[in-house]
Amino acid sequence: QMAESNHLSHDWDLPAGEALLQDVFGIVMDELVRKGTDASEKVCEWKEPEELKKLLDLELRSHGEKQEQILDRCRTIMQYSVKTCHPRFFNQLFSGLDHHALAGRIITETLNTSQYTYEIAPVFVLMEEEVLKKLRALVGWSSGDGVFCPGGSISNMYALNLARYRRYPDCKRRGLRALPPLAIFTTQESHYSLQKGAAFLGMGTDSIRLVKADERGKMIPEDLEKQINQAEAEGAVPLFVNATAGTTVLGAFDPLEAIAEVCQQHGLWLHVDAAWGGSVLLSQTHRHLLDGIKRADSVSWNPHKLLATGLQCSALLLRDTSNLLKECHGAQATYLFQQDKFYDVSLDTGDKVIQCGRRVDCLKLWLMWKAVGGSVLEQRVDWAFTLTRYLVEKIKLRKGFELVMEPEYVNVCFWYVPPSLRGQQDSADYCKKLAKVAPVLKERMVKKGSMMVGYQPHRTLPNFFRLILGNPALRTADLDFFLDELEQLGQDL
């Protein structure tokens, strides 16, 4: 026993550990919470991979290092990481820092529990149910089910798996032998996780049938009807329609009411991928964009995007009240889900999911909501729309900036046309030249560290920028800066 305590005291110095944490929190406050959200600081400190490897000294060795060196390493990690909370970070569908949500994430990490049983996560089992109930109510359901998933892609895969199980419960036991060829319907504007999900679940990407979208990126319900009939004629069984509320690039909302009508007529599972657009349900002004969502069978919604809870916070919501999640995924592990426990075993929600260990993702959203209230979250959503209008009007008045289309949401898609290409629209290689502009500007802004914004080609359109207005701390001055900076970076092109 004596030898053991000596060994532990040498390695397990509690006061030193606490001092380390205090110091690390100090650096986090300094480098990330303050500097990382300060518009006068850089968004990123670009280094080429080989140089970055040297700076980080990544190799793991047999001997440990002194606390000062570890703190230096923490600082270095923060210094060379991208500051996604920065007001000039427009690159992804997530951005910004909510202090209450971050507090929730810190508590979650420190408690280090798994969401599978009431036994080890009593607070979070009850909290998750309450948060999911609130999200379901915003969809328009007074009952149902749900679970937090590790990202919207997994939520979409869950929906696909549940739809298949509901139609063919035998496939849980017998696998693909129990299934005819199935047909899944979505548009090419939808998220690529549907392709991955179809492959992962053994349905194959060939089972996906692409429904036409109009020029604004919205599904055409008449073509959905046509594709369903065609699939049947070819001997496939229509199973699942994926409608998108807030597409990744254009921010389009599929017409849910009309799609729900088609699904009802054909008895198909309707899933709404509202990973990006779901948070609009909080806004009385803009929630009409999701009219008809309450007719869905399942909904994906990522509060870590527009609501800025921090990664990850991805809910899968179900209208089902028959315990489909548990029937589809349950494996009744006797060492976790004993049926003779001293409390109500229906509180052990872990058998609803395909994971065993599952991180707590509800606290950051719950704590933020408790702190600011639904009314402030609504104001934040409305503010993002207001900023979008502001930016669009500025772009229209500005030489060399051209909108791809009027945005429906907070995705602003546009080209920057440098001086040398203006008035050249009719020349044969105009599109080819225009396509080279965004990648050059992206490289310049990243190497300067002034801002980050994404670009992509889309259908037949050459590379254009997609600016996302999701950070609740954004002000009009940040958008003015963005336009000026882009112009400055591209004036010699």
Helix content: 40-55%
Query: What is the count of distinct domains?
Result: 3
Please give the number of β-strands: 12
Instruction: Using the CA coordinates, give the radius of gyration.
Output: 25 Å
Structural class, please? alpha/beta
Strand order of the largest sheet: 2-8-7-6-5-3-4
The CATH topology label of the largest domain is Aspartate Aminotransferase, domain 2
Pfam families: Pyridoxal_deC
Keywords: Decarboxylase, Lyase, Pyridoxal phosphate
Protein name: Cysteine sulfinic acid decarboxylase
GO molecular function: pyridoxal phosphate binding; sulfinoalanine decarboxylase activity
Keywords:
single chain; 493 residues; alpha/beta; Aspartate Aminotransferase, domain 2; Aspartate Aminotransferase, domain 1; 7-stranded mixed sheet; 15 helices; Cysteine sulfinic acid decarboxylase; PyrdxlP-dep_Trfase; decarboxylase; pyridoxal phosphate binding; lyase
